[in-house]
Amino acid sequence: MLRKSKGTKFANQAEEASWWKASEGRLADEFEKFAAAGALGPATFVITGDLTLAKIRLGKRDVALACALAKERGMRCHDYLKMIIHEALEAAKTARKSAAL
């Protein structure tokens, strides 16, 4: 069953960043539990960096595939998605440098 976020309020950005850092493992574990139960629909992933934020919407099939591939590697889905995004960005950067030459 889907549940709605409680809408945690934070006093400032540093407090929010601290909460996300402390909760990352628990949230990833919950995500894996829902994925294993087949209870995922379209998903929005929020990725935070220093002062940036990116939301990525993935369909149910993409989420299921990412979770299956992550499991084959012995990784959590969240960590796997971060890894493949990083690899794709590095490949694009390398291709961009090659094209400039």
Number of domains: 1
Q: How would you sum up the global shape?
A: globular
* Share of helical residues: 55-70%
Show unreliable segments.
none
DSSP helical segment count: 3
The end-to-end distance, rounded to whole angstroms, is: 53 Å
Beta strands, count: 2
Could you give the order of the helices and strands?
HEEHH
What does the radius of gyration come to? 16 Å
Rounded mean pLDDT score:
79
Strand coverage percent: 5-15%
Structural class: mainly alpha
Instruction: Please summarize the sheet with the most strands.
Output: 2 strands, antiparallel
> Largest beta sheet: what is the strand line-up?
1-2
Fold and architecture overview:
The model has no long low-confidence stretch (mean pLDDT 79). It is built from three helices and two strands. The protein has one domain. Strands 1-2 form a two-stranded antiparallel ribbon. The protein has helices spanning 13-36, 60-72, 77-100, and strands spanning 43-48, 53-58. It has 101 residues and is mainly α. Helix 2 (60-72) crosses helix 3. The relative contact order is 0.10.
Secondary-structure topology with pairs:
Blueprint: H1 13-36, E1 43-48, E2 53-58, H2 60-72, H3 77-100
Antiparallel strand pairs: 1-2
Keywords:
two-stranded antiparallel sheet; 101 residues; mainly alpha
Concise structural overview:
The protein is mainly alpha-helical and 101 residues long. Helix content is 60%, strand content 12%.
